[in-house]
Design brief:
Elements: H1 10-20, H2 24-31, H3 35-47, E1 54-58, H4 67-71, E2 75-80, H5 83-92, E3 99-100, E4 113-119, H6 128-138, E5 139-150, H7 156-177, H8 182-193, H9 197-206, E6 210-217, E7 222-228
Parallel strand pairs: 1-2, 1-4, 2-3, 4-5
Antiparallel strand pairs: 5-7, 6-7
Helix pairs in contact: 2-7, 7-8
Family: Belongs to the class I-like SAM-binding methyltransferase superfamily. MenG/UbiE family.
Pathway: Quinol/quinone metabolism; menaquinone biosynthesis; menaquinol from 1,4-dihydroxy-2-naphthoate: step 2/2
EC number: 2.1.1.163
Length: 230
């Protein structure tokens, strides 16, 4: 299985990411035209990890997204449900405390983390609302959540151009650089089906998060949503 269906069966999604693990970071650099590095920088600024804090990085994949928090002095736990991603991450950074976990049933105690973050992974979780509630549970009172996810460009003309890129240009490019290009057809389809910025903010509030806000990056291709645990 190299391509998941949009009903997001966990085994299918995990198998898809297992298949792309070896070249995942390289493929992302190519498909995002290098913008993913800027997005990671913005996530690190939003999380604002401090020395001595505990940060949970969900959908961490190979652990690339976790490194900025470690560099800021935070104890960082990269968590993912793809064994292929975890194995590749452990091969690259064996000192990181990788944990296998499902975002809807996290293997951590209540209030374990000062901050929880997830980048480009919430879209792949079968039950978004259950995942948002689990993130709330494992965050300490007053702790923070940062979600970085593909979203919807705010300008109509740009939105049309972006949609054309997703469905027409992305799959051929993925066939050249990815070990499992069919997975990137799923990527394009899942982005188009994902809620827009206000809709996701509403779901955070319904899950119990407070001080919910978002900021668009690259014209709304990506949005950073934030919240606090009351």
């Amino acid at each position: 299985m190299t391509r998941a269906s949009l009903d997001k069966q966990p085994a299918e999604v995990a198998a898809m990411f297992d298949a792309v693990a070896a070249k995942y970071d390289l493929t992302n650099d190519v498909l995002a035209l290098g913008l993913n590095r800027r997005w990671r920088t913005e996530v690190a600024r939003a999380v604002a990890a401090r020395p001595g804090e505990r940060v949970l990085d969900l959908a961490a994949g190979t652990g690339t997204s976790s490194l900025p928090f470690v560099e800021n002095g935070a104890y960082t736990v990269p968590c993912d449900f793809s064994q292929g991603m975890l194995h590749e991450g452990h091969r690259r950074n064996p000192w990181l405390p990788f944990v296998a976990g499902d975002a809807t049933r996290l293997p951590f105690r209540d209030g374990s983390f000062d901050a929880v973050t997830i980048s480009f992974g919430l879209r792949n979780v079968r039950d978004t609302d259950a995942a948002l509630r689990e993130m709330l549970r494992v965050t300490r009172p007053g702790g923070r959540l940062v979600i970085c996810e593909f979203s919807h460009p705010v300008r109509a003309a740009f939105r049309t151009l972006y949609s054309e890129y997703l469905m027409r240009a992305l799959p051929p490019v993925a066939r050249r650089v990815s070990s499992a290009p069919d997975a990137y057809v799923y990527l394009a389809e899942s982005i188009r089906a994902w809620p827009d910025q206000p809709a996701l903010a509403a779901r955070l509030q319904e899950a119990g998060w407070r001080q919910v806000a978002w900021r668009d990056l690259t014209g709304g291709i990506v949005a950073l949503h934030r919240g606090r645990r009351p």
